[in-house]
Specification:
This protein is α+β, with helices and mostly antiparallel strands. 60% of the residues lie in helices and 10% in strands. The protein has helices at residues 41-44, 48-60, 62-83, 130-196, 202-236, 264-270, 272-293, 318-321, 335-407, 413-447, and strands at 88-99, 111-125, 298-309, 322-331. The chain has a 4-stranded antiparallel beta sheet. It is elongated and about 130 Å long.
């Protein structure tokens, strides 16, 4: 290891210092590092249908597969770079017949054969650490793609969950629209009966028909959006567009007290996107060393051993055909002659490090902001849902009272239509805000860097052997 332990040009990596709060915004300072992101997905979102969809997406999503392929490519390139620290050994076998020579022509060239079999060795002595810094950069790039794959997995899981929640929201809104159409049709029938009995006029009938038309149009539009949402989920799952099988009632996720977020300082170690950018920063830091090492000469050792003879029968006769050589070489792009190019490479490497450093710091600050936003949503949306629920209850009561007053002859049809027209959008808003409350947990889980873990397999029956499942 005499030659392999030479100096390393360039700075050793140190993580940049990013301002880190003691706690997230509006959170009391805590020393508890426990986080919801440390829990398995299926325990946080207790919905077997959603868990099954996420597992399918992780297995079949084409974008995630492409990300995995990029990771494998980076790993292979890191192996290529790492192998450069070792000697390069090759072998050649030559058999030729010819007349004369282009290099040293003679007046009377003779014809003849030549045979050779040899092995060569070439080894660059990494005195300045150019190869080792290059290997450090390549390994860091591979680790960046590995963390990028984790980040893509977390993002895919969250996208599937949010698309599923949006689909459930549309299901709930479609149910509201269907019930509203039925209610409007019932009211319209009463208006029509009163008109035919001579106790009413055409205005409530026309208004009732318009209400039915509006609610029916909303229902059809929601059903259109449901088809689009199912197609989106199918794409995320790696399927052709088609319906998504689901139960009629979806479990709702409710906040049950404070949700642990952990310490902000641990977020840097947990978020895969932050870790991916940091590995790119490590690579950029190593490239500075590569650029600085190029200012110095490269030393190479070479060796050759083999057999060469014009007579094939004597090719392996050591006393007549054995040949060998050993030597060394020095190659140097002298800074005097290549100064601008070498200095330009070094400046470009330093500028790339500075760019990546700022991207890293911005990524960390963005992570803090996303967690703070998600925590605020989790805390506040419960209260918003409660207000919306009370609003729907009160408006439903108002509709009943207005209908009683109308048929009792003490109020006009305007009170009925006004309260009905307020109840319908309020019920749609309630379904929407309930979905937002559930989505806030998904966003928090993603913001905290929660990863996807497969649920533990069911305990096999002792009388029914189970086949192993590929991971």
């Amino acid at each position: 290891m005499l030659f392999g332990s030479g100096c390393l040009m360039g700075p050793d990596y140190q993580r940049p210092v990013v301002p880190t709060p003691a706690s997230y915004r509006d959170q009391a300072p805590t020393q508890d590092a426990a986080s919801i992101a440390d829990l398995p997905w299926w325990t946080v979102f207790n919905d077997p249908e959603l868990t099954a969809l996420v597992a399918e997406a992780v297995q079949n999503n084409r974008d995630l597969r492409a990300t995995f392929a990029r990771m494998e490519q980076a790993r292979a390139l890191a192996r290529v770079q790492k192998a450069q620290i070792l000697p390069a050994v090759g072998a050649d076998a030559v058999g030729a017949y010819g007349r004369g020579s282009l290099i040293a022509p003679t007046e009377n060239p003779t014809s003849g054969a030549n045979f050779a079999l040899d092995a060569t060795l070439s080894w660059e002595i990494d005195v300045w650490g150019r190869i080792r810094r290059g290997t450090e950069a390549a390994v860091a790039q591979y680790l960046a793609t590995e963390q990028g794959y984790r980040a893509a997995t977390v993002s895919l899981v969250a996208d599937v969950a949010l698309a599923y929640i949006q689909l459930r929201q549309l299901d709930a809104q479609a149910d509201v629209a269907r019930r509203t159409v039925v209610n409007y049709q019932r009211t319209l029938q009463l208006y029509s009966d009163r008109l035919q009995g001579g106790a009413g006029n055409r205005l409530p009938v026309s208004t009732g028909k318009a209400q039915v038309n509006g609610a029916e149009a909303t229902r059809r539009d929601i059903e259109r959006l449901i088809v689009h949402q199912e197609n989106l989920l199918s794409l995320l799952l790696g399927r052709p567009p088609g319906p998504i099988t689901r139960s009629k009632v979806a479990p709702a996720l409710h906040a049950t007290g404070p949700v642990p977020a952990g310490l902000p300082s641990t977020l840097i170690e947990r978020r895969p996107d932050v870790l991916a950018v940091e590995q790119r920063l490590v690579a950029a830091n190593a490239q500075i060393g590569v650029a600085k090492a190029d200012f110095f000469p490269r030393f190479n050792l070479t060796a050759l051993a083999g057999f060469a003879s014009p007579d094939l029968t004597q090719l392996f006769n050591p006393s007549k055909s054995f040949v060998w050589s050993a030597g060394g070489s020095v190659s140097w792009l002298a800074p005097i002659l290549q100064g601008d190019a070498l200095h330009g490479q070094a400046e470009a490497a330093s500028a790339q490090w500075e760019e990546t450093k700022n991207i890293y710091e911005q990524t960390v600050l963005t992570a803090f902001r996303e967690v703070a936003d998600a925590l605020d949503d989790v805390q506040r949306l419960d209260g918003i849902v409660q207000q919306r629920e009370e609003q729907v209850v009160n408006l439903a009561d108002s509709v009943g009272l207005a209908e009683d007053r109308f048929f009792g002859g003490v109020a006009s049809y305007l009170e009925v239509t006004t309260t009905q027209n307020l109840l319908f959008p309020a019920e749609l808003d309630l379904a929407s805000v309930r979905a937002q409350r559930t989505a806030s947990f998904v966003n928090l889980y993603r913001a905290l860097g929660g990863g996807w873990q497969l649920p533990p397999p069911a305990t096999p029956s002792p009388v029914e052997p189970t086949a192993s499942k590929p991971q």
